[in-house]
Amino acid sequence: MNRILVVEDERRIVEFLEQGLGAEGFSTTAVSLGRDAIAFLQAYELDLVLLDLGLPDIDGLEVLEWIRRERPGLPVIVLTARTTPRDTIAALEGGAADHVAKPFGFGELVARIRLRLQSAPRSAEPDTLLLGPVRLDLRARRVWLHDVEVELSARELALLTVLAQHRGQVLSRDQLRDRVWGVDAELGSNVVDVHVAAVRRKLGADAIRTVRGIGYRVAD
After folding, report:
1. Topology of domain 3-119, per CATH?
2. For the chain, which residues make up each domain, given as ranges?
């Protein structure tokens, strides 16, 4: 079943899409904020994003920019009332696979979704990563330590996932903050350290290793 993230703050539209897409055989998750969309994409594997541009916290184009930088193979259909030629060009040049104006015909939207899913490149990334005694299932968003499942919060899971996807690299606190919480998020200076400590308490001190003066990396 294909998984679609709906980034939309109008509840009426969200309910319509959830009901309609569910009937068409898609699994949907909806968020109303751009920063929540980025956090969700860090923690979960998706097949397609329906993205509104007029979000309450950050512009949808910023979310699109993040997706193109961090998840370049993920198709995005912009679904918005901003339909001037300038807006359409900005979305397409920003990397959107398609641009659909509100109000939209549901049948046409489904056809566009199926087309983009058929043409989307298949990821070569494995579904499961082994990090020493830790096993991370990227699709199911589940974590095990010595074959015992461990529950992580959404941010803890996003942090571990980012580090796991950059295995062999050291990521700075700024890089982790931008990838997990978003570039413009207003956070305390120690938010990364706090979440690293939380992951270590649950998965062991060696699950995430400190590279002094640089940042963090996962265990080999």
Report:
1. Rossmann fold (3.40.50)
2. 3-119, 128-218
